[in-house]
Amino acid sequence: MKTIGIVAEYNPFHLGHEYHIRESRRLAGEESAVVAVMSGDFVQRGEAAAFSKHARAEAACRCGADLVIELPLPWSIASAEGFADGAVQLLAALGADTLSFGCETTDLGELEDIASLLTEPTFLEETKELLKAAPARSYASARQEATERRLGRPLAVLQQPNSILALEYLKAVHRHGFSLTPLPILRKGAGHDETGEAEGLLSASELRRRLGTGEKTEDFMPGEATAVYAEETEAGRMAHDRKRQDLLMLSRLRFLKEEDYLSLPDAGDGLGSRIWSAVKTACSYEEILASAATRRFPLARVRRCCVAAALGVNAGDRLSAVPYARVLAFDERGRALLREAAQRGQIPILTKTAHVSGLEEQAQRVFDLGARAHDFYTLNYRKEEERSCGEDWRRGPAVCT
Questions:
Q1: For helices 80-93 and 161-176, angle between their N-to-C axes, nearest 10 degrees
Q2: pLDDT at position 190, please?
Q3: Rounded to an integer, what distance in angstroms lies between the CA atom of residue 148 and that of residue 342?
Q4: 3-class DSSP state for residue 92?
Q5: One domain for residues 332 and 232
Q6: How many Cβ atoms sit within 10 Å of the Cβ of residue 196?
Q7: Half-sphere CA count of 75, side-chain side, radius 13 A
Q8: Do both 344 and 217 map to the same domain?
Q9: Does 43 map to a domain?
Q10: 77, 232, 329, 362: which has the fewest Cβ within 10 Å?
Q11: For residue 58, which of 222, 257, 192 has the smallest C-alpha distance?
């Protein structure tokens, strides 16, 4: 079976995501199956998702995806490189032959040229030299300068959020030698974090804002996704209260010790100590973020470190290989994909949480981190009766018919 792999957060699933799946099938073959590797309850920008991973996976499955797999927590809240590497590993292990991604450009030649350059050891050393010469500058700025020097032309893609992720997907494919055919899909609609409407579409960030304020969103999401999110909202299972989230984060961060911050993923070059110092003096979570962030340590990186600290994720939890594939939702074609993947035996597939006991110890820890993160996530639910502990251990995949 021809299988299209997609890396996503679906936070929330909207018309642009539906278009991406539909266009991927048009270009790769209408009979192709679609497997999506999706972030869990906490996403790559270092925040809680608007709805739980279970609800978002069901919405995606009812709107075009055949199989939705959870990207485990240590990779969901990683840098773009770690996020992409973990997701691409999962797609390859599940038998995807095409890697489709939304992008600000469809010039695959340019993307491949840049990705190839970014993986060269000599290029990495050149970037480090630029950082040494100007320690206050950001890594992204140094990388862009080094890349443009090498290729001899301005490169707008290095400032485009979806293109940056696309480069990380391609780097992961090259690094591991996977047989995944890249399929860039030109991104439509409002840009990343933009507030206005474009081509009848809103950005995910604007949709999250409107969901949080109770504004109308159904015109910008597929009907079945709207229905899933409406049910979650009615049941009080949404994470839209930023004040509550920030207080939960502040409370958790104050209980940690300095060594906890020093052992965080991506907290090198003094960032762990910087966050620890901010926690000791700040009166709010926003103040911690503002105090710790600099040009060298962008706000998103600080947020990811803080979320990792609050959820107990340390640098050793991001293993060299993603240890399992947890199924969040599937339809009939997805069921066939699972059978094929099980026969290949490249990765343990979890369709029941009882299967976790058969994993190696480190893999069990990774799963438990995600389950405890879900318990932390549900503390933001509006209805107290929905905040029960251990739900992730009791929850099976959504079956979409």
A1: 50
A2: 56
A3: 44
A4: helix
A5: yes
A6: 10
A7: 29
A8: yes
A9: yes
A10: 362
A11: 222
217 and 210 Cβ atoms separated by less than 8 Å = yes
The domain spanning residue 331 has which CATH number?
3.40.50.620
Closest CA to 294 of 310, 277, 281: 277
Q: For residue 105, what pLDDT is reported?
A: 93
Task: Please name the residue that has the structure tokens 């060269």.
Answer: 120
Domain coverage including residue 250: 242-317
Q: Which residues of the chain have pLDDT under 50?
A: none
Q: Are residues 14 and 87 in the same domain?
A: yes
- 86 lies in the same domain as 188: yes
The confidence score (pLDDT) of residue 134 equals 86
| 8 Å CB contact between 373 and 311 | yes
Distance of CA 236 to the CA centre of its chain: 24
pTM of the model as a whole: 0.95
Final residue of a structural domain among 281, 301, 317: 317
What are the DSSP E strand ranges found in 177-286?
A: 181-186
Answer yes or no: is 169 within a domain.
Answer: no
Residues 338 and 287 in one domain: no
* pLDDT at site 180: 97
Supply the Cα-derived Rg of the chain in whole angstroms: 20
201's tokens? 């579409």
Measured CA to CA, the distance from residue 319 to residue 121 in angstroms comes to: 22
Label residues 143-178 b or e (16+ Cβ within 10 Å = b): bbbbbeebeeeebebbebebbbbbbbbbbbbeeeeb
Do 54 and 64 belong together in one domain? yes
Question: What pLDDT was estimated at residue 79?
Answer: 95
Task: In whole angstroms, give the CA distance from residue 193 to residue 203.
Answer: 6
Helix (H) or strand (E) holding 42: strand 42-43
**Is 172 within a domain?**
no
| Rounded distance between C-alpha atoms, residue 251 and residue 313, angstroms | 17
Strand partners, 349: 325
Boundary (domain end) residue, out of 317, 339, 357: 317
Domains: count for the chain: 3
One domain, residues 16 and 93: yes
The answer to whether residue 155 is domain-embedded is: yes
Same domain for 92 and 191:
yes
The CB-based long-range contact list for 297-302 (8 Å cut-off, 24+ gap) reads 297/269, 297/271, 298/138, 298/140, 300/45, 300/46, 301/46, 301/79, 301/266, 301/271, 302/46, 302/271, 302/275
